[in-house]
Amino acid sequence: xxxxxxxxxxxxxxxxxxxxxxxxxxxxxxxxxxxxxxxxxxxxxxxxxxxxxxxxxxxxxxxxxxxxxxxxxxxxxxxxxxxxxxxxxxxxxxxxxxxxxxxxxxxxxxxxxxxxxxxxxxxxxxxxxxxxxxxxxxxxxxxxxxxxxxxxxxxxxxxxxxxxxxxxxxxxxxxxxxxxxxxxxxxxxxxxxxxxxxxxxxxxxxxxxxxxxxxxxxxxxxxxxxxxxxxxxxxxxxxxxxxxxxxxxxxxxxxxxxxxxxxxxxxxxxxxxxxxxxxxxxxxxxxxxxxxxx
Length: 294
Known about the structure:
This protein is mostly beta strands. It has one helix at residues 215-221, and strands at 2-7, 21-23, 35-40, 52-53, 56-62, 72-85, 94-103, 112-122, 130-142, 147-153, 164-167, 169-170, 179-182, 187-192, 202-203, 205-211, 224-226, 233-237, 244-250, 260-262, 265-267, 274-282, 285-293.
């Protein structure tokens, strides 16, 4: 018999720190439970040891422009919290899959097209652990593209290797719905948790990615100024493959300051204290830096 159940297992973990960014619809990254899922109980008697998880796919949808991204976007992986119970006591290693989809309509409508996937293993030792499952290669899309992230969990094989593996949830709030599908429970297409009477289950299921930089953009990102704050001179640290055509300094009112530049060093000793904007024009593009003069 298949049924929707709720597994409770309290945990507290935080997201790791990465150079890339994590897009999330979750107000909190703290998992309160393993959430709602389709589960099996062959003898229909709770607590007899034959219980386990059925097939479940958990989803969230992300559009990078909603998070301030523009241009091209690199989808790198999926972040979630694992909630795992070794029901049969045999400590099985379970292989599941994270998937990345696009849709020809706004999710959950339309036909899903898989554009990336990655298998990962989980055991009882991973209960409550934050997973960052990274694709072998980033997938580059326009930042306006809706990306659907999913964790696809296969049905347990039954005793003695039965287990219950779900994705962490909380009820702290979310900015977009959480979704679930499960053939065993008749949920043949993704539906919201609210539609199956669990509106307070908010999936912690995040997209890891970043804006794609062109070669020139990457080169410009290596430009730095020092010391900052300063009272005498500003030095420009410029990669060897670009040249500075012009450097101009502007005060908070947008007025151009009178400064002299020599060999990528700017003399600011005659300027009043305050915050200035340094505009640097180079052979590969322009950029601006905030400078504080003491």
